[in-house]
Amino acid sequence: MHNLLDILSHSKSYLKKHSVSDYVRSSEEIICKVLKCTRSDLFLYPKKKISIEQKIEIEKLLDKRAIEKMPLAYLLGFVSFIGCKIKLTKDVLIPRMETEELVEKMIKILEKEDLKNKVLWDIATGSGCIGIALKKYFPMLKIVISDISEKGLRVAEENAKANHVDVEIRKGNLFEPFVKQKADFIVSNPPYIAKREIDSLQREVKDHEPILALDGGESGVEFYKRFFQDLEKFLHPKGKVFFEIGSAQKEPLKEIFSKKLFFKMSFFKDLAKRDRFFLLEFE
Question: 2-68 has which CATH code?
């Protein structure tokens, strides 16, 4: 029978050998999932015995991480996102650190707004992480989350209930669920990877995350072009739109949205100093 120290050492070596970059964290999280313990327990009780059944289950998960390159977030089934616990399945994209940065920037901007009777739409919501985190922070704000994926919306609905927030959920592509309606704020983290670039992505991404949430068309900015065509019909005066964008998409987006002069555009960098966030203000 093995103990915690043995299995942790073996796990780290195994994942490192298979070029898993976060082999330390992955090892610890996988063991904690099987043993239903915290990461601190691994170091507090290094001599704790591991049963054969637990060892077999840990090794199965290690193989999924090492051989199949399944993302750790899918193995665990959830991520933490700005104070929320977000359930994940293969039907929704894994929230990135940049998406947390987007929400943090939105919070700073929305804190300065009078949100009474205001409405925010989270379009292409995926797991619902953006809309749910914002609703938790701004309970007075009416938030509607939408997506084209029915399976994805089921996950988003579960996440809303698990995080005890009341958001409205609608199915449809882009503005389809919002006919003859207008919002004060819109946010979207859309598919923005050019089709030709998908095959060059890491296996963790291209083999496991939903292509529907990755494929931004031939140019990578197809979603934004379609968004631009109808946006003014769905946004109240002085409305604001927040996008997450690809790091090389600043100039193409400036070209798209400068065709209408009543939009004020601002770009923001992420912590890595890359242009990743785009704010439109409707004048």
Answer: 1.10.8
pLDDT tens digits along 77-91? 999 999 999 999 999
DSSP label of 201: S
Tens digits of residue pLDDT in 123-182: 999 999 999 999 999 999 999 999 999 999 999 999 999 999 999 999 999 999 999 999
Helix count and strand count (H, E) for the chain: 11, 11
DSSP strand E in the chain: where? 2-3, 49-50, 78-81, 84-87, 119-123, 142-147, 168-171, 183-188, 235-244, 263-269, 275-282
User: 């610890």: which residue's tokens?
Assistant: 28
pLDDT at 261: 62
Taking alpha carbons only, the member of 90, 73, 79, 60 closest to residue 206 is 90
Contact indicator for 30, 37 with CB cutoff of 8 Å: no
Arch. (CATH architecture) of 82-282: 3-Layer(aba) Sandwich (3.40)
